[in-house]
Specification:
With 151 residues, this protein is an alpha/beta fold. It has four helices and seven strands, in the order βαβαβββαβαβ.
Length: 151
């Protein structure tokens, strides 16, 4: 990512289901001059017009995902592995959304954060909240490549 890069962060999740709201939490707590931030909530497909218009160099999608890690831990999910992991519930499966957006983005990265609780609650667990703040710091410091990738 260079100083002139056009980047979009798309947070995904249901903030009424505890840790499932992690992606939305990050979208609502991250800002940076090189980033457009979108909170896709449970219908990230509603953000496609902005993404198509902006044609970002990098699109980062963040969502809670059962990726067999400790709660609050996170990883980049290889795009060809998305179907293997149970991602949070939304209107359109993320693999279809990513396929649709691929022609409009130079690069797409999906970051999954392991939830602890996805029961009805408006609060993130402490572990997932801590993980969200770590992701925000990594994005601000332009260190996305430091996040391990699930192959």
């Amino acid at each position: 990512m260079t100083e002139n890069s056009k980047n979009i962060l798309l947070g995904v999740g249901n903030s009424l289901r505890g840790d499932d709201g992690a992606g939305s939490f990050i979208a609502n707590n991250f800002s940076h001059k090189n980033w457009i931030v979108l909170d896709g909530k449970t219908a990230p497909e509603n953000c496609t017009a902005v993404i198509k218009r902006e044609k970002p160099d990098l699109l980062v999608i963040i969502d809670a995902a059962d990726i067999n890690l400790a709660p609050g831990d996170f990883s980049v999910i290889a795009l060809d592995k998305i179907k293997e992991y149970q991602l949070s519930t939304h209107s359109m499966p993320l693999h279809l959304l990513i396929e649709y957006l691929t022609p409009y983005c130079k690069k797409i990265i999906l970051i999954g954060i392991q939830p602890k609780n996805i029961q009805t609650s408006e609060n993130l667990t402490d572990q997932v909240s801590e993980g969200c703040y770590k992701i925000i710091s990594i994005l601000k410091d332009n260190k996305i490549s430091s996040i391990p990738v699930i192959q």
